[in-house]
Write a structure and sequence with these properties.
The chain contains 5 helices and 3 strands; from the N terminus they run βαααββαα. Strand 2 and strand 3 form a beta hairpin. By secondary structure, the protein is mainly alpha-helical. It starts with 8 loop residues before the first strand and ends with a helix. The radius of gyration is 16 Å and the shape is globular. It has a 3-stranded antiparallel sheet.
Length: 91
Amino acid sequence: MLGRNDCNFRFEEHQVYQRGIIDSLTEVQQRSRSSLLRFDDILCEDGYCRTRLADGTSIYKDGGHLSVAGSEWAVPQLGLSKLETPSSQDP
């Protein structure tokens, strides 16, 4: 693959490709004074963003959305598995 042995991409490429989305979400965050959950910390390190799990499973289903397997992996990485859903609080 043009000198690459995997499908990982540079963090800078991600920022350019997703610039419009990043800017829009940042504006919503600022206007609403809400928190924004970013996946960069778990998907990217040392300047590169991974596209596959250690076992080779794809994290993405397309250029910007996580696959089911990627989502299942990401939830505990972000500490979201500890959150309760409204249905789990019902008696």
